[in-house]
Amino acid sequence: MHRAPVNKIIPSSVVDGPGNRTAIFFQSCNFNCRYCHNPETIHMCQNCGACVATCPVQALSIADGKVVWDKKKCCGCDTCIKTCTHNASPKVTEMSAEEIWEEIKDNLFFIRGITVSGGECTLQAEVVKELFTIAKDNGLSTLIDSNGSYDFKNHPELLAVTDGVMLDIKADNEERHRWLTGASISPVLENLEYLAAVNKLEEIRTVCIPQQLNSEATIQVAAEILKPYLLKKDIRYKLIKYRHFGVRQEYRDFEEPTPEYMEELKALAEQSGFRNIVII
Questions:
Q1: C-beta atoms surrounding 212 within 10 Å
Q2: What's the confidence (pLDDT) of residue 48?
Q3: Residue-wise over 41-72: b if at least 16 C-beta within 10 A, else e?
Q4: Confidence at residue 264, expressed as pLDDT on a 0 to 100 scale
Q5: Whole-angstrom distance, CA of residue 278 vs CA of residue 270
Q6: By the 8 A CB rule, do 74 and 58 touch?
Q7: Which of 23, 74, 171, 266 is 20 to 30 A (C-alpha) from 215?
Q8: Rounded CA gap, 179 and 181, in Å?
Q9: How far apart are CA 117 and CA 168, in angstroms?
Q10: Per-residue pLDDT for 117 more than 90?
Q11: Are residues 101 and 240 located together in one domain of the fold?
Q12: Pseudo-torsion of CA 246, 249, 251, 254, nearest 10°?
């Protein structure tokens, strides 16, 4: 039985795809984005124990050299996350697809579908595939929120049970993408075209930072790749304002974009062929 580390499950979300959805956030990511607003999902717990002493309700302990989290005692204050110096969280549960479904199945009559995110959820592709198979059998739609590093082209069995992928387009070229994420842009752009070609591209997303990133160029790169497909499908483009909330202290000096700047980017996206553009 495949198992995967689950950071949290949000029973009802209206920001993780269309309609009311249950969102499952997996732990661990192969990118290290400077502007990441939930950096505690990047790495797995190192079991250093630093968080145990700081927990105000003794919901954490050490057993057999590992940090153990007592969900019933936890008050959700996130002191452990603030204490951690490894971009990790002790509040992670290893779960199978069947166990995840058991936790979310009571939402069935109130949601349109489920969305998996992270971290980077495609690092747990087997569990995602199994979970999506169960969800489809129960009439739910299925969406993946991905950084684009996964080779979707060579894994058709996952796409077969996936209704759409929400893909992050973080930068316009290799240099800026590596500076921002520590990873190559090549698989992201390959996925951008491939997912559009097989009609699995639900939306694309770009976090906008005026000084550090060339969002104008990012929009134009995405538009050029998607040009053959934008006439066939109304692919949503979310332009996301960089915000300091949740970002690691060393990266909080990035400039937040003004409303005027975001409107300029929206106008550029419209000129570039996008029709469904959302600023958030």
A1: 17
A2: 95
A3: bbbebebeeebbeebeeebbeeeeeebebeee
A4: 98
A5: 11
A6: no
A7: 23
A8: 6
A9: 12
A10: yes
A11: yes
A12: 80
DSSP labels for 73-142?
T-----HHHHH-SSS--S--EEE-HHHHHHHHGGGTTT-SEEEEESS-GGGGHHHHHHHHHHHHHTT-EE
Among 73, 69, 72, residue whose Cα is nearest residue 81: 69
- Name every residue whose Cβ is closer than 8 Å to that of residue 164 and which is 6 or more positions away in sequence: 17, 143, 144, 200, 201, 202, 203
* Residues 50 and 34 sit within 8 Å (Cβ to Cβ): no
The DSSP-derived string for 248-279 is -GGGTTSPPPPHHHHHHHHHHHHHTT--EEEE
Predicted local confidence at residue 13, as pLDDT: 95
CB 16, CB 113: distance < 8 Å:
no
- Could you tell me the pTM of the whole model? 0.96
Residue whose entry in the numeric block shows the structure tokens 């699995």: 200
Specify the CATH number for the domain of residue 62.
3.30.70.20
pLDDT digits (tens, 9 = 90+) for 30-73: 999 999 999 999 999 999 999 999 999 999 999 999 999 999 99
**What average pLDDT does the chain have?**
96
- Residue 155 in domain: yes
Dist. CA 59–CA 70, nearest whole Å: 5
In terms of domains, do 74 and 174 share one? no
Whether the upstream peptide bond of residue 119 has omega within 30° of 0, thus cis, is: yes
Q: By residue range, what is the domain housing residue 49?
A: 45-83
Bridge partners, 117 (sequence order): 25
In-domain check, residue 88: no
Beta bridge partners of 4: 95
For the chain, how many helices (H) and strands (E)?
Answer: 9, 11
User: How far apart (Å, rounded) are the C-alpha atoms in residues 168 and 107?
Assistant: 27
Residue 19 included in any domain: yes
